[in-house]
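MarR family transcriptional regulator (Streptomyces griseoviridis), 383 aa
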Amino acid sequence: MTAVSASWLPLSPGERAVAIEVLIGGPLSRTELATRLGLSAGSLTRLTKPLLGSGLLVEADAPAGSRQGRPSQPLDIVAESRSFLGFKITADMVYGVVTTLRSDIVDRHDRPLTSHDPAEAADLVAEMTAELARAHPRAAGIGIGVGGLVRDRAVVGESPFLGWRDIPFAALVEERTGLPVVVENDVAALVEAETWFGAGRGLERFVVLTIGAGIGYGLVLGGRRVRTGQEDRGFGRHWILDPAGPLTPDGERGSAVALLSIPSIRRQVMAATGRDHGYEEILALADAGDPMAARVIGEAARGLGILVARIADFAMPQKILLAGEGVGLMDVAGNTVRDTVTGLRHPLAEPVDLETKVSDFHDWARGAAVLAIQVLVLGAADG
């Protein structure tokens, strides 16, 4: 396979548009590509010539039965031409992946995070990078996902899970690895990955709702993630779903965080039983009919149904993706969630397309790698 030379960077705006369209939708015929981008045949030829010459694009085999000749040969991306490293940093672990240019995970490497000191965390990411790069030497960049507020895709403004404030983490990792680095809020990275390559691909209006250690929300309008001043501010702590609901240290009484987050669910069960159960154990107990676990999980399911119904009413998405390490709730109490959604919406409202994705921390790391692809390679996620 043709290798991509360094000369394919930087891309002009027109070349970038072509590369993104083929990356997300390819392989595409020249006719279809020109139609999607509103280009003449001559303009498309001018834009694709340098991309083909550098090896970023290739002419794939024409479909069986098509006319012979160059116009029938679809254009495709060379997905394996570069590798991208993605990391998800939690309070006690760093999860790492290597992806292709199309975000397919080809390797994984995880290490415990034993210190929240930013320099030591950067050392660990650098060590993991070196380990992964030995097997994947064509690494083009690094993406890092962190729970909390991130500024300019470089500075962790605030991360409650890590106790960080105003940490220039991208620069710390760049110094140690020599590779360009993008740092972003982990939910934002996951939303970008699902918009380009996952459940939201091709959709104009799309929502990602995550439940796990906290509550995450991302909105896509016009095929682009909406960035606001409130983003990454943990406002799930203030989404009141049940004013009479549980009161926890992590949020207002009856908030989305108080009802749905894994720590809160575990805390409620422990307060009632005196035993510290794991989340999966609580789900199993609820499924088996244990009264206390069933009550807590039932309240969480009704809260999730309220939240989904309100999102559907106000954002009017074509699809809501429910993701995160807490989505096992749907396996045990999905009917309660769906019945609550139906009961709260107008009888003639369009049904909610609610998709559940069982995701682990490698999916979050993959999201960070997609940010690296977008920002470092294609310069496409700057809005």
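The chain is about 40% helix and 20% strand. Confidence is low (pLDDT under 50) at residues 1-7. ok done for today
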